[in-house]
Amino acid sequence: VLADPQIVARGMVVEQQHPRFGTLRLPNLPFRFSDCDTTIREVGPDLGQHNAEVAKSLGFKPAEIDAMQTDGVLFSK
């Protein structure tokens, strides 16, 4: 289905680069707006990719974040 010429011509499939999996073919958003680009620009984050940043934004100190990572409470890449 993803290789169907009509699907490709309508821009319903986009290719994105993923750091672990290489080139991925993903379904594009099914709706279009005349004044807004709805193209998917990047893949979702890896598991735990932003955990330290989120913990910091919640008020945890760097030492607390490090301790949570060491204890396996918080997983970060």
TrEMBL record:
It holds the Pfam family CoA_transf_3. InterPro entries: CoA-transferase_III_domain, CoA-Trfase_fam_III, CoA-Trfase_III_dom_1_sf. Keywords: Transferase. The keyword Transferase applies. One of its GO terms (molecular function) is CoA-transferase activity. PANTHER family: BLL6097 PROTEIN, SUCCINATE--HYDROXYMETHYLGLUTARATE COA-TRANSFERASE. This is CoA transferase.
